């Protein structure tokens, strides 16, 4: 699908917004994938493997998986073999504490490049917000967990990060004095202007966002939300904290391991959470 067609689709979708049915308003403990809040046309696009534009990134990731690189002249496949076997379930466990550091999946992939391939980490090209190659590999690895529930550990070494993430999630900041929870918990299912607010899950990321005309990481989405309601960027130190220490954002999946309200709806959760695992198209 060309960029122009996508833009046209996005514009058509936006125009249709005003006519959309009011989104469902879930009870706070009910876990619903972001997909539950989009219009049916967008969901149909997401479910269609031929039409879903995010799958272009997955295909690129599959090619990169086989591509030799770095001083060692190895590919991911040389060491890990078939991704469908080696990476099954792996994406569902990130972010994860590795050697004392909290890493998201893309950081973990870059670590492999540096440590095992003698290759430089992928970084965003100057004109890009994020590295296309890294996003592609991340989407490809994550796709191997399609249909599986999220399984992020929040105990042991991960506990302090989780606690900090929860604090940040409920902390009111910025000129508008808003917290993430005030939209994604208190107002889920309501519209912000024409846009329905979801519960803010990250299980579908990296996700294709029609409005941005490309794939985006969960970190980019956090940054966008934060900059938008805080009215200014947080200091880089605080931002890093938020991005790197926010496993709590998988809070509804985490609730299965944590006596957080909603822990009794694990079944619902695994169904809804897994929904977008097989898809990389986000909401509009
Ligand atoms: C030379 C061998 C080698 C190559 C090449 C390699 N890896 Fe790895 N990878 C490993 C080893 C060994 C581990 C286990 C942990 C460690 O020691 O880093 C690992 C761990 C991982 C993990 C974490 C798995 C988990 O269970 O958390 C991911 C994800 C990963 N590699 C992805 C990749 C990707 C993507 C590529 C290609 C860009 C790649 N690896 C290339 C050897 C390799
Ligand atoms: C003023 C309301 C508001 C606040 C506050 C807010 N967001 Fe959002 N957020 C939105 C809207 C609107 C969207 C796009 C529609 C959707 O998916 O919810 C969104 C989308 C998201 C998504 C993507 C969900 C998906 O399924 O694609 C994530 C993740 C997210 N926000 C995280 C956060 C985090 C983290 C914070 C706090 C730092 C935050 N948001 C604060 C309104 C808000």
Q: Would you mind describing this structure in some detail?
A:
The chain is mainly alpha-helical and 284 residues long. The chain has a single domain (3-278), classed as Cytochrome Bc1 Complex, Chain D, domain 2, CATH 1.10.760. 43% of the residues lie in helices and 6% in strands. The chain is built from 13 helices and 6 strands. β3 and β4 form a beta hairpin. The two termini are 16 Å apart. The model is unreliable at 1-22 and 233-284 (pLDDT under 50). Residues 34, 178, 180, 182-184, 192, 195, 197-198, 200-202, 204, 207, 218, 221-222, 225-226, 229, 249, 282-283 line the site of one heme C. One heme C binds at residues 34, 178, 180, 182-184, 192, 195, 197-198, 200-202, 204, 207, 218, 221-222, 225-226, 229, 249, 282-283.
Give the structure's gist in a few sentences.
This protein has 284 residues and is mostly helical. The protein has 13 helices and six strands. The model is unreliable at 1-22 and 233-284 (pLDDT under 50).
Search tags:
single chain, 284 residues, mainly alpha, Cytochrome Bc1 Complex, Chain D, domain 2, two-stranded antiparallel sheet, 6 strands, globular, disordered N terminus, binds heme C
Which secondary structure elements does this structure contain, and how are they paired or packed?
Layout: H1 3-17, H2 40-47, H3 55-65, H4 76-80, H5 83-86, E1 96-98, E2 101-103, H6 105-117, H7 132-143, H8 159-170, H9 180-184, E3 191-192, E4 195-196, E5 207-209, E6 214-216, H10 218-230, H11 236-244, H12 251-254, H13 266-275
Antiparallel strand pairs: 1-2, 3-4, 5-6
The structure holds heme C (2 copies).
